[in-house]
Write a structure and sequence with these properties.
The structure is a single chain. The protein is mainly beta. Among the domains are: 13-88, no CATH class; 317-483, Alpha-Beta Horseshoe (Leucine-rich repeat, LRR (right-handed beta-alpha superhelix)); 488-624, Immunoglobulins (Immunoglobulin-like); 625-678, no CATH class. Helix content is 4%, strand content 29%. The strands form twelve sheets. Strands 1-2-3-4-5-7 form a six-stranded mixed β-sheet, with no helix packed on it. The chain has a six-stranded parallel β-sheet with strand order 6-8-10-12-14-16, with no helix packed on it. Strands 25-27-28-30-32-34 form a six-stranded parallel β-sheet, with no helix packed on it. A hairpin with a 5-residue loop joins strand 44 and strand 45. The radius of gyration is 38 Å and the shape is elongated.
Length: 678
């Protein structure tokens, strides 16, 4: 039993009233008094303002040798009083009813601790119910928190083993602790609006946890809280799953919810969870241990999924993540042992440590085109995939990243890889073929490739064969020529004949479309739009050239995507010089890579740019030339001047500055858009 000493003096008087018994009175606030009728056992609090924060009626009454305090049956607080004081009625074991007026704003800590209350209704003016306010009220069956409570303190209903009916405030913001600790019976009517439902209103912001043990079966939980103003203020572990005793069969997420806090559905026993379209953030451990969860949708708006968010979801079989997610954090899908298919968006740049470790049933995995980093043990234990293709932008591979891939036979490394960690391919491996497009051998340790036998074949670019052969680790493999189908040209090449030109260029795995604009004498000859496989989507010729045509060299089925694309343009003029701009474009039409150059058909006697086909930085986005713009003349004249040596090396005609192509002509500087630079 809790004990408390009196810190504030209380003035006590006694009055004899035959009809009502003895009336005891005293002071419990600067402008608040109390009176106790010894016959009716009714305690009345009246006055204006707050009750004392550290005062106890029982102390005064016991000092007088009376046992009246423990016999109080009813408390009436009259209008004007603004709080229920700290420890005010604690241990008043026979107190069974309380009447609270409008105007009360706070129920202080331990205010009704260990009383005999059976029910209580808080007025709508109450905003805070502090720590343990009703704890150990073993007879409390019903509690109505009204409409105004925003804050509930820790252990508010600790030990309230008879609690059957509870009505939340519909503007609740914070639960600051384990409020249902040590409750063992079944709640028949939980928070509004649904019977047998735990309801979190839109105003809800944070909770440390709601229960530790012995939480009864609650069929439905409704999470309607919206995105908090300060996401970092969401306390964890916030949990309405089963990790602390819950066994919800269904969880409903409100349509306006944007933020799923950390640990929210930890251990949830349901098999389906539908997230509304507005959800942007899924916190760490949010779905960890949901062992029955077979389906969860990911709205297009999701941009963040926290670490360990789906760790141990052993029933999940398929997932499709939305575009726009930049990072798969550590252990996000670790030990999802039945996960066989997952679609990773092209926006993913980082895959964290252990992200897919233990996902033994994954039978195929397409690495995102923008991927830069693969963490330690990120894909450890994946057994069903025979080949691994790493995109060009992958820079580093963590230790044991592909450990125990027992069925892996071939690995293709893109041209960007620089570092491969310890034991990256450790375990029972069947790798017999390695292909690397990196011009310089990636840095490896003695154990990085130790599990791959010396008999494996290694294919590298022709110009890099010597470097790899002389490397202590890479040089132990059998060298073979790079297959023609895998060789990626370093720039655009154009092979022109009498009236045709064959364009060949490196593909961009992030590109959705390609655009080729061809110019003759500063006027656009034609503009071609191709899909990611080099198939023609659209064509526009200059007026008077409708008899021209184009064709793809490769059919869709044999195109060497994703290494190189080729396209044939026919109907060109003989003995003519052309300029071109080849752009790789993303979904928004923004250039990812832009190549510029010139070429000529058979019979042309002039000179061409020896660096034709070079890439320029596509910032700002390239805008096709306008034939009516002065930029056309500027480009042509500047190129002619540069080609024929008429330019001043100290003041070049063409230059790139801050990622922008600039053209100097007649002492004026132009951008590629044709705007005058002053």
């Amino acid at each position: 039993m809790k004990t408390k000493h009196l810190f504030l003096a209380i003035v006590l008087t006694c009055t004899c009233m035959p009809a009502r018994g003895t009336i005891y009175t005293g002071v419990c606030g600067e402008n608040v008094t109390w009176s106790l009728d010894s016959e009716t056992k009714v305690l009345t609090i009246s006055g204006e303002g707050e009750m004392y924060h550290e005062g106890h009626f029982s102390d005064t009454l016991h000092w007088q040798g009376n046992k009246l305090y423990s016999s109080i049956r009813s408390v009436v607080i009259e209008p004007g009083v603004t709080n229920v004081g700290y420890w005010a009625f604690a241990n008043c074991e026979n107190l069974t009813s309380v009447s609270l007026p409008d105007g009360i704003t706070v129920v202080e800590e331990d205010a009704f601790y260990n009383t005999g209350l059976t029910s209580i209704v808080l007025p709508n003016t109450v905003q805070r119910v502090e720590k343990a306010a009703f704890s150990d009220c073993k007879s409390l069956q019903s509690c109505d928190l009204g409409h105004g409570v925003k804050y509930i303190g820790e252990a508010m209903f600790y030990g309230c083993t008879a609690l059957e009916h509870l009505r939340w405030s519909d503007c609740l913001e914070t639960i600051d602790g384990c409020i249902f600790w040590n409750i063992s019976n079944t709640l028949a009517d939980l928070p509004i609006p649904l019977r047998d439902t735990l309801y979190f209103p839109p105003t809800f912001r944070s909770m440390k946890c709601i229960c530790v043990s012995n939480m009864p079966n609650v069929p439905v939980a409704v999470w309607n809280a919206r995105h908090p103003d300060d996401p970092s203020g969401v306390s964890s572990p916030l949990n309405i799953g089963v990790g602390y005793g819950y066994s919800f069969k269904k969880i409903i997420v409100g349509e306006d919810v944007e933020y799923i806090p950390d640990y929210l559905f930890y251990g949830y026993l349901g098999d389906t969870l539908v997230l509304p379209e507005g959800v942007t953030h899924i916190g760490k451990n949010a779905f960890q241990g949901c062992k029955n969860l077979r389906y969860v949708n990911f709205p297009d708006a999701v941009r963040y999924i926290g670490k360990e968010a789906f760790k141990g979801c052993k029933a999940l079989t398929q997932l499709a993540l939305p575009e726009g997610i930049p990072t798969i954090y550590s252990s996000t899908f670790m030990n999802c042992s039945l996960l066989s298919r997952i679609s990773l968006p092209s926006s993913v740049k980082v895959i964290g440590d252990y992200a897919f470790s233990g996902c033994a049933e994954l039978d195929s995995l397409l690495m995102p085109a923008e991927l830069r980093t693969i963490g330690e043990s990120a894909f450890e234990g994946m057994k069903l995939q025979r080949s691994l293709l790493l995109p060009d932008k992958v820079l580093s591979i963590g230790g044991q990243a592909f450990k125990n891939w027992s069925s892996l036979e071939s690995v293709h490394f893109g041209k960007g890889v620089m570092l491969i960690g310890d034991e990256a391919f450790a375990g029972d491996t069947m790798v017999t073929q390695l292909t690397l497009l990196a011009a310089v051998p990636p840095t490896v340790s003695e154990t990085s490739l130790a599990a791959i036998p010396d008999s494996a074949w290694l294919a590298v670019l022709p110009e890099a064969r010597t470097l790899y052969a002389n490397d202590e680790q890479w040089g132990r493999f059998r060298m073979q020529a790079m297959p023609d189908s895998l060789y990626v040209p370093t720039k655009v090449t154009v092979e022109a004949e009498q009236t045709t030109a064959l364009f060949t260029w490196p593909t961009d795995t992030a590109a959705v479309t390609y655009q080729i604009d061809i110019y003759k004498d500063g006027t656009k000859f034609c503009s071609l739009t191709l899909d990611s496989y080099g198939r023609l989507l659209g064509i526009a010729f200059a007026p008077g050239r409708n008899n021209k045509s184009v064709q793809s060299v490769e059919s869709a089925g044999t195109n060497p995507q994703p290494y190189a694309l080729s396209f044939m343009v026919t109907g060109l003029d003989e003995a003519s010089r052309y300029n071109y701009v080849l752009s790789t474009l993303d979904t928004d039409g923004t250039p990812l890579h832009v190549y510029i150059g010139d070429f000529a058909t058979t019979g042309y006697t002039g000179e061409l740019n020896p660096d034709s086909g070079n890439e320029i930085t596509p910032t700002p986005p390239i805008i096709p030339f306008d034939p009516e713009s002065t930029i056309v003349t500027a480009v042509d004249d500047a190129m002619e001047s540069a080609i024929h040596g008429g330019s001043d090396p100290a003041n070049p005609c063409l230059l790139i500055r801050s990622g922008e192509l600039l053209i100097r002509h007649d002492d004026r500087i132009y951008t590629i858009q044709g705007q005058l630079k002053k």
